[in-house]
């Protein structure tokens, strides 16, 4: 079953979630692309950044979520419904940007070499995924889901590869690979801020598996575990480590 999304909830932390996107683009050297693909555009809030940087390009925004596509269109982005698993680059695609998407695509390590092979010479593939599936924010969700009466299917720790694995994967295609990781310390505020943070992403499959009442019971039991794992500072704010993995591959 496909994960459903709440674009408004996702955008509650827009500034925090957007920073890795800008850090990824800072390492993209493409100058005059014909077509730029925002593969997994979400609510379309970052697609205009691509259009502004490369005004001469056709910017193609794609997402597998009907809710996200609707939100993107409502904001003026001409988004199209398209699953990454079924996508093939057009012959003039000179840049592919996939931001915080591939962790939802179990087959992405097999797809990436195929995409790069299909891209024209000189094209660039840029990706960013979370690398925090072993963190308490995710491990505690899996732990509680395993205790639950109803079956809940979640991504495991292997939802993404490690940086060295992506480097090897990209280098094997013949592309020049630039791979790195960054751990941001996000300063969160409010009541149960980590729970609120993951409600827009990691908890979406839980919400899909459970009814509204059961989901509320799940989060009620999860909240104190997250508070213990991420205690608030003296000023009431919470520091949340946010590890991200980046890769840019330039095809010769």
Automatic annotation (TrEMBL):
UniProt xrefs under InterPro entries: SAM-dependent_MTases_sf, Trans-aconitate_MeTrfase, Trans_acon_MeTrfase_C
Recorded name of the encoding gene: tam
Annotated localization: Cytoplasm
GO terms for MF: trans-aconitate 2-methyltransferase activity
Biological processes per GO annotation: methylation
Superkingdom in the source lineage: Bacteria
Name of the protein in question: Trans-aconitate 2-methyltransferase
Keyword terms, alphabetized: Cytoplasm, Methyltransferase, S-adenosyl-L-methionine, Transferase
Any single Gene Ontology cellular-component annotation: cytoplasm
Entries under Pfam families matching the protein: Methyltransf_23
Principal subcellular localisation of the protein: cytoplasm
Purpose of the protein: Catalyzes the S-adenosylmethionine monomethyl esterification of trans-aconitate.
Catalytic activity as recorded in UniProt: trans-aconitate + S-adenosyl-L-methionine = (E)-3-(methoxycarbonyl)pent-2-enedioate + S-adenosyl-L-homocysteine
Family statement drawn from the similarity comment of this UniProt entry: Belongs to the methyltransferase superfamily. Tam family.
Enzyme nomenclature, EC number: 2.1.1.144
SUPFAM superfamilies: S-adenosyl-L-methionine-dependent methyltransferases
Taxonomic lineage from the root: Bacteria, Bacillati, Actinomycetota, Actinomycetes, Pseudonocardiales
Species, as recorded: Pseudonocardia halophobica
